[in-house]
Amino acid sequence: MASIPVIQSQQEHFEEWQLPDRGKVGMLTLILGESALFSMFVLAYIFYIGKSISGPQPAQVLDIPVFMTICLWSSSFTIWLAERAIEHGKMKIFAGFWALTIALGAIFLGGTALEWKRLIYHDGLTITTNLFGTTFYSLVGLHASHVVVGLIMLITVLILTLTGHVKQEHAHRIKTLALYWHFVDAVWVIVFTVVYVLGR
Amino acid sequence: MTEISKHSSGHGHEGQIHIPANTAWPLVLAFGLTLSFGGILLGIWITVLGLLLCLISIIGWFRDVLPHESAEYVSVEVRPFVSETTRKVVDRIELPLLEHKPGELLPQATLIAGLKGGIFGGVAMAVVVMIYGQLIHGSVWYGVNLLGGAGVADWTNATTAQIAEFHWGWFLIALLIHSTASILMGLIYGAMLPMLPSRPMLLSGIAAPLIWSGLLYAGMGIINPAMNSRISWPWFLVSQLVFGLVAGWVVAHDENFKRIRKMPLAIRVGLEVPGLIQENHQGESH
Amino acid sequence: MADQTLPIGGVVDVTELKAPKQTFLEWLAEWFITVDHKKLGILYVVYAMVFLLIGGLEALVIRLQLAIPNNHLVSPQIYDELFTMHGTTMVFIMGMPILVGLANYIVPLQIGARDMAFPRLNAFSFWMTAFGGLLMYYSYIGGFGLYGVGTAPDFGWFAYAPLTSPAFSPGRAPDYWAVALIVMGWGSLGAGVNIITTTLTMRCKGMTLMRMPLFTWLMLVVSFLMVIAIPCLTAAQGMLMIDRYIGGHFFDTQAGGSAILWMHFFWIFGHPEVYILALPAFGLASEIIPVFSRKAIFGYPAMVAASVGIGFLSFGVWAHHMFTVGMSGPTNTFFVIASMLVGIPTGIKIFNWLATIWGGKIWFATPMLFSIAFIFQFLVGGLTGVMLAAAPWDWQLHNSYFVVAHFHYILVGAIVFMVFAAIYYWFPKVTGKMLDERLGKLHFWLFLIGFHLTFDFMHIPGILGMPRHIYTYMPSRGWGMWNMIETVGAFVQAIAVLVLVFNIIVSLRSGKEAGNDPWDAWTLEWATTSPPPAYNFAVDPVVKSRRPLWDLKHPEDPDWKYE
Q1: What is the pLDDT of residues A128-162, one digit of tens each?
Q2: Residue B279 placed within a domain
Q3: What's the mean pLDDT in C55-72?
């Protein structure tokens, strides 16, 4: 007969029972899925390099977007500084770097918008023009949409910070959110390499 | 993460447990998203409605979890848990007393024997193939090139003279295929022979090569007709039998193999039963 | 008694919840707003069962159409819609939800957690799945195109280009197919993220990864497959929508696009999808077979390694669906070898199940009957799989009824059988009532006979050359008798499923009380009441081995001494 009284049994064995953080695992898993999504569009882009049968080719119309790329990648650095600031409870510095991150992200988006405007009105390249147009706008557009989603979340946090709702104890969630932003930046490394270096 | 959200790793909490409160926002958000996607098919106003629902539900959801996750408190009174079984007697698989502890032997011992068998068998088979090439086509490389050249299908209508020459590429490919296949087959012998009934030489030396030669004979015409037309099946069978006999002999005369064959089947198949596997006395495993 | 050998604290409480008087509407509303993993699990399973009946009805009409040569029971257009919707339904709207639903219910209980890691995301995922399925079926009403062409999708469940291009599908059918599956894809992604996070971060004390029950392990692997594979499909469908709506050229061969690319993209998703459906069945078998053999699972570490191995391999075999496309020799060879490699871990699993049964005290309850049938049918389906993995064989039989028979052997003979076993096994836990054993055995034997009538004989017209998706055939082909037998078998299966439905209704009303642990099982879900309270365990369990309840029941002979 195994009749068990209530016991908080063997506490001493399990003092060190540690499990990974929920938010972080969830975010990393989501990033894994997003990577799969991106890799399909990247594969399609690579598959169709040089296969367009008409219209402008990448080498004719694409310029390497140095400035906006630097902006996006440095935003990864500023958001890391913001993470460090909130861990140490320096909320002013956090808000500053956070806002700077948003500004850099916005500059990147603006750069993309100008690039697209030039491509559409000056070079006559739209999504229907040829395979290059189709794959280029889908891939870069998919990335840009992720930047937009990231910016919306960053701005929400900024508003909450300015109204005093974000405190040091939320550093955990902020870091989870920052993971997403790092991912968006990392994807740009791939997109940049494929579209502006290999594809030209 | 607030403490409440860690209900998983729960503590006693004075007879109260918090569970996340019911909420309609996930439902509304899912409906909104479906509508905003469905709007592609059903019309722009559906998308607008869907996006509106999304916005409302995101805000609602947000307020649900921030700043504090809304939870319900359930009071519980914990009582003893009785777990009983009517099957109190534990049967054991009876094993005779052993002179060796099986842990000393299993299962790597026979695998090493199998590896040796595969290598020896492979060498013996290669010798037979080369003899065949020399006798019938006047070149020891004939059989080698047949495997290396046709194996990767990069020859087109090669003449017999071409096949008889020595080619580095084909030789390396043939060597790779032949050694991999020989070693794998040897390992299978090492793993399986201890488990099978008596007469290991009959099984490994004659029965197994006959079976796979028959399978290859039946299938090669479909798989690779070019190769099939050049294979001399009687010689092929001879080389396989030589492989089987040599590999089987090496495995069957291995000392560990002989010891293991005397043990009961339960040990030979690696059954996990108390007494066979190491008892862990520390209380905490791993 | 509270000595060191007792691994679990008081895990159950017997406090009567003061059930407040509810009106019917309140009760109903609670199902819509619930975030409880158990209720969501039930919702998933019930939703999937409804679509099992719908998809089954579609299959019956298909079988009736094919029963005799030169038949015109339904029009070719409707027939095409039927097989497309049957496939799509059974894979996406029935298959995945029913397995995710089982995982939803069982996984948190098995790892001693109070809920999933993200309960609200869990609800969101279910509702996305549900609305996606409804949107898919709305295509019957809303999918009309020009000249009334097409309502529901009619291009096969893999939707090959260029059949989905505006020229060949002028209606809205491909759009419904793509959009509904994208919506459902979000649900599956959410479910995958949730299950991974739950198993990695919510395990009770002492539940190391190598002590997790095998069903939980398998669902962890499956969730990784879902998280990686489903976005691939979403991406491909996104490209399809770009092609159809804003004039892209991804799959437009006239602009240099490639229809083959769609095949690659679909099967990069499609083959892992097959394992997303099959691996949970392996997990269910690994739970049920030991309990009814009264022996611990044989080779637990090998089972885990094999499962993870299958997971990895599943991403390297997709082009074995495309041997007839005309790929290069080395490519064919790679996919032949990779596909055949899958046979190794699955073979390990079959041997482990057999070794678990070997020497056991077998208890032939209904779940065990289904599980035994599963082992043999899975073996046969796996062997025809190895045959089809050989490219030359596949050149002969690709897209024939031999292939249809092969994958139904896995999907029905393995997966559906294990799902039925799981329903009989966990129904007592979920409802507190036993399912009737006599009706269960009737269900089993009817379904077994029907299954073998249909799918054994389906191989033969396949070898004789009957192609998949064919509308009807000439009497001179000699396929008539085989097809008639298959149709009869399909109806026997349908009767068997009705027996199950009847059994569920009867047992819910007047079934035998189950008690906490009717099967004398060993995993943690049996250490709480049936049905479990909303919080699952009043006190967090603490485990010391893979079979915590065995340790409790046999304190003189616990597992943790040997693991």
Answers
A1: 999 999 999 999 999 999 999 999 999 999 999 99
A2: no
A3: 95
CA pair distance C94, C46, nearest whole angstrom: 10
**Cα–Cα distance measured from residue C230 to residue C223, given in angstroms and rounded to the nearest whole number:** 10
Residues of B in contact with C142 (CB under 8 A): 41-42
The position carrying tokens 């509702």 is C127
| Domain shared by B221 and B141, yes or no | yes
For residues A194 and A45, the answer to whether their CB atoms sit within 8 Å is yes
C353-406 confidence digits (pLDDT tens)? 998 998 888 999 999 999 999 999 999 999 999 999 998 889 999 999 999 999
Residue predicted with more confidence, C140 or C376 = C376
Mean pLDDT of the C329-342 span: 87
Asked whether residue B69 falls in the same domain as residue B107, the answer is: no
Give me the number of domains chain A comprises.
1
- Interchain CB distance below 8 Å, B1 and A22: yes
Instruction: Give the Cα separation of C416 and C419 in Å (integer).
Output: 5
In contact, C261 and A47? CB cutoff 8 Å: yes
- Between β-strands B81-83 and A2-4, what pairing exists: parallel, antiparallel or unpaired? antiparallel
Per residue in C323-336, is it b (16+ CB within 10 Å) or e — as a string?
beeebeeeebebbb
Same domain, B119 and B156: yes
From chain B, which residues contact A within 8 Å (Cβ)?
1, 5, 9, 12, 66-67, 78-84, 284
Helix (H) or strand (E) holding A4: strand A2-4
CB pairs under 8 A between A and C: 142
A12, pLDDT greater than 60 = no
pLDDT tens figures, B159-202: 777 777 788 888 888 898 899 999 999 988 888 887 776 788 88
Q: Where are the domains of chain C?
A: 39-516
CB-based contacts of C291, cutoff 8 Å, min separation 6: C425, C519, C520, C521, C522
- Is C33 in Cβ contact with B27 (below 8 Å)? yes
Closest-CA residue in chain B for C352? B271
pLDDT at position B42, please? 83
Beta carbons of B81 and A4 less than 8 angstroms apart: yes
Q: How far apart are CA C179 and CA B103, in angstroms?
A: 58
- What CA–CA distance (Å, rounded) separates C113 from B73? 17
Q: State the complex-level ipTM.
A: 0.91
Per-residue pLDDT at A1 = 31
Radius of gyration of chain B (CA): 34
**Whole-number Cα distances in Å, C458 to C142, C483, C489:** 35, 7, 11
Residue A13 included in any domain = no
Overall domain count for chain B: 2
What is the span of the domain harbouring residue A156?
Answer: 22-198
Q: State the count of interchain CB pairs (< 8 A) between B and C.
A: 175
CATH superfamily of domain region C39-516: Cytochrome c oxidase-like, subunit I domain (1.20.210.10)
Q: Residue B74 pairs with which residues in a beta bridge?
A: B17
The range of the structural domain enclosing residue B263 comes to 102-268
Question: Subunits that touch chain C (at least 3 Cβ pairs < 8 angstroms)?
Answer: A, B
Q: In chain C, positions 234-253, which contact chain A (CB-CB < 8 Å)?
A: 234-236, 238-239, 242-243, 246-250
Residues of C in contact with A33 (CB under 8 A): 189, 192-193, 227-228, 230-231
Q: What is the domain-level CATH number for residue A178?
A: 1.20.120.80
Average pLDDT over residues B59-67: 85
Residue C88 has pLDDT above 80, yes or no: yes
Whole-Å CA distances, B190 to B108, B117, C302 = 9, 8, 19
Whether residue C549 is predicted with pLDDT greater than 50 in this model: the reply is yes
Contacts of B12 in chain C (CB under 8 A): 539
Assign C195 to helix, strand or coil.
helix
Check whether B157 has a pLDDT greater than 80: no
Q: CA C40, CA C126: separation in Å to the nearest integer? A: 7
Chains that touch A (3 or more CB pairs under 8 A): B, C
